[in-house]
Amino acid sequence: MDQVKRTAKSADEQSKQEDRNSFEETDSGTSSDWICCLMQQIGLPALRIAPETMEVTAFNRLFAGLFVSAGIADYRLWFVDGVLPSMNKDERADWIAAAARFEPAKARVRLSLRRGRKRNFEMRSAGRIQQETVDPLIACVFIPTSSVDPRTRDQPGLARGRAMERSRIRDELHKNVSQKLLGAAFGCKVLAGKVQGLNDGFAQQASDLAELLNTAVIDLQNLTRRTEDYD
Amino acid sequence: MRGLRVFLVENHQDSVKYIRLYLEQLGHEVTTAEDMATALKLFPGSTCDVLISDIALPDGDGWELMERIKNTRPGLTISMSGYGSAEVQLRSRSVGYDYHLVKPFTPGDLVALLEKAGTVVENQQSGREEDTSKGENLPEWTK
């Protein structure tokens, strides 16, 4: 690994730039590496590394996007300086051993993204692909994961949303429905009082209507109290 | 029930209109104010027996109103609010309201309290004091 660093850092800066430009040219259209190209189309960051030095030999644009802010100018060191240090410590040794044997392996990696955000990935790798006969390379694919179960991750947000909605409904019940119902209930009692003695039939109907509104008022009281009990 | 002088502070126009009509129909004399500024202006001259005030007012709240008229508070005071949480009711009691009505309340709920106020006023006039601050025999809807 140190040898990789030394080799890469001792290389002439101009040749590095040429290398990068050269790679970007092939990557911008159809990458020369079919696995990276395929993963790009699927939507997964991917790269290829040399088995012994772990020097990056190919990558797709999605992976390059991850490392824009990582401050590692030489793409050949992206795996050694960027991915390996970000790998789960307990899984790193196992992954290196598996990679040395060209066996499929996986490890958890937490990479720094743009604007300082970090994201968890599961890196899956495979080596010695049968279709490739020359220069066996290890293919690494990065699958975004989350350290928190997505079913529980949004629980606080959902609870806040539910509380806000309850509060909104309660306010609406108070400002609109409740006030109008209150006025209507009193209005009906007034009406019943006014027609009493003049027309007993109307008076009874107004009184019944007042009772109906009273029942609605009590129902609304119970409903608003139940929403308060939740908070 | 004897006629009482009621001072009603409520900014919802339909509510204040029909509560006023209803109370007047029952023989009470009603003065209304739709905000705290009007209430503070009219209250000193009203010599009312009962103050009924909404908690949410456009230029303040019923708690502040009570703080400002505390020394001249009438025999019975009732706060009204759409919020019936223990916190709101406790605050109403702590600033000096005798009862807290949770909106929407029925005409019967209000009449029951006014009957209580009638008793308080009669006792005061006959020299007997009734302590309403302990909240004894509170109707269920005021708790």
| Biggest interface, chains and residue tallies | A-B, 27 and 21 residues
Structural class of chain B: alpha/beta
What structural class do you assign from the helix and strand content of chain A? alpha+beta
Percent range for helical residues of chain B? 40-55%
Number of strands of chain B: 7
Number of helices of chain A: 9
- Quote the distance from N terminus to C terminus of chain A: 58 Å
Low-confidence regions of chain A:
1-30
If helices are DSSP runs of H or I spanning 4 or more residues, what is the number of helices of chain B? 5
CATH superfamily of chain B: Response regulator
Mean pLDDT of chain B: 85
Q: What CATH architecture of chain B would you give?
A: 3-Layer(aba) Sandwich
The description of the largest β-sheet of chain B is: 5 strands, parallel
CATH topology of chain B: Rossmann fold
Rounded mean pLDDT of chain A is 75
Structural Rg of chain A: 34 Å
Explain the layout of strands and helices.
The complex is a heterodimer of chains A (231) and B (143).
Chain A: H1 2-10, H2 13-28, H3 34-42, E1 46-49, E2 56-59, H4 61-66, H5 78-83, H6 89-100, E3 105-112, E4 118-126, E5 138-145, H7 150-153, H8 155-195, H9 200-230
Antiparallel strand pairs in A: 1-2, 1-5, 3-4, 4-5
Helix pairs in contact in A: 8-9
Chain B: E1 5-9, H1 13-25, E2 29-33, H2 36-46, E3 50-54, E4 56-57, E5 60-61, H3 62-69, E6 76-81, H4 86-95, E7 99-102, H5 107-125
Parallel strand pairs in B: 1-2, 1-3, 3-6, 6-7
Antiparallel strand pairs in B: 4-5
Structure description:
- The complex is a heterodimer of chains A (231) and B (143).
- By secondary structure, chain A is α+β, with helices and mostly antiparallel strands.
- Chain A has 2 domains: 146 residues, Beta-Lactamase (2-Layer Sandwich); 78 residues.
- Helix content of chain A is 58%, strand content 14%.
- Chain A has 9 helices and 5 strands, in the order H-H-H-E-E-H-H-H-E-E-E-H-H-H.
- In chain A, strands 2-1-5-4-3 form a 5-stranded antiparallel sheet.
- Chain A is rod-shaped, with a radius of gyration of 34 Å.
- Chain B has 5 helices and 7 strands; from the N terminus they run βαβαβββαβαβα.
- In chain B, helix 2 runs parallel beside helix 3.
- Chain B has a 5-stranded parallel sheet, with helices on both faces.
- Chain B starts with a strand and ends in an 18-residue tail after the last helix.
- Chain B has a single domain, classed as Response regulator (Rossmann fold), CATH 3.40.50.2300.
- In chain B, helix 4 links the parallel strand 6 and strand 7.
- Chain B is globular, with a radius of gyration of 14 Å.
- Chains A and B meet through helix 8 and helix 9 of A and helix 1 of B.
